[in-house]
Amino acid sequence: FTVLFIYFTCISTVQTTDCLHLKEQCINAGNGCESVWNVVEDVCNISVLGNRCKAEDTVGCNRIIQVLADEYPEFKNCVCTTDDICSITTLLGKQCGINKENISMVTKLQWDLSALSKQVYTTNRSCLDVNRECIEDEVCNKQLSLYLKVCSVNKKCNVEGCQAAIRFFYRNMPFEVAQMMIFCDCIQRDEPCHRAKELLHGKPCAVTAVPPPSCLNVIHMCEENELCRKKYTTFRSKCWRHVTKKCYNDEACLETLVKDDIPCSANSECKAAYISNWGTMLHTECTCQNLPLVEQPLCELFHHMLHSRSCFS
Q1: Each residue of 179-210: b (16+ CB within 10 Å) or e?
Q2: DSSP label at residue 212
Q3: What is the residue-level pLDDT of the chain in tens, covering all 313 positions?
Q4: Could you tell me which of 294, 295, 280 has the C-alpha nearest to residue 215?
Q5: Which of 104, 203, 253, 304 has the greatest number of C-beta atoms within 10 Å?
């Protein structure tokens, strides 16, 4: 019995050390992991002194830890989301399985009790109305408050941190609610509505770069990032099957396509893939100005795929 006790104690110590090392690697990696970790600290309300967790939103805490494990699989053996209490303690020590169903079930129950999720999706709703309804809804407001805290324009913008918060925000939304927020709109001179739209859509922190990159650069940078590449591949296959089927990754082939002739599926799977792009560099505003003439057609094709709302009109 004593030998077994020592053995399991050693395993626990090794696990804790390995996970602490992974945390340090994450913070210093420069690949976006630090931004997700910062959101974990915000959601789980981790004490600066040590790693104690005092989360009020335990479901949200476990959800963001699950996001960390999904986006950075090296953490998969360091997390446990099967308990009802904040699992940051298990992130730093206890090895156990991940049970996504438990988290999904509790989150669904919260949204089932939310009035906002019962609304039927309609196109072109006012962003001011959607923003107001989210603020007045307890479940949505809790999610929105965290996202706005991380993406606040009143402090220095952490682009990757804000993007991670946007991914977390829309990932936690029921599909109908996410659609209402993503596809809301404003008439030209309605300034309060435009401000609400910027809040919901992550501007300017996560979207606006100065100077704006070319859409070609955005695609190339995305393809070099594993998380972004997966989302882009899914988006292209769900929304632009014609492009995927005919050209795949052949840019010379893509240049022969005319954007007006490319059919977009615009079904629910396509909309979900489009929403999933938010919080990645694919959502960054990009331009095709000042490019050599030979690069213009391909750039305009990418701009059309990433930013044209005609697919969803």
Answers
A1: bbbbbbebeeeeeebbebbbbbbbbebbbeee
A2: P
A3: 433 333 333 334 444 457 778 888 888 877 778 878 888 877 776 654 455 556 666 667 777 777 787 778 888 777 665 555 555 555 544 434 445 555 555 566 566 656 676 666 677 789 999 999 888 888 888 888 878 877 765 667 778 888 888 888 888 888 888 888 999 999 888 999 999 998 888 888 888 888 999 999 999 999 998 889 999 999 988 988 777 667 767 777 777 776 666 777 888 999 999 999 999 999 999 999 989 988 888 898 889 889 887 777 6
A4: 295
A5: 304
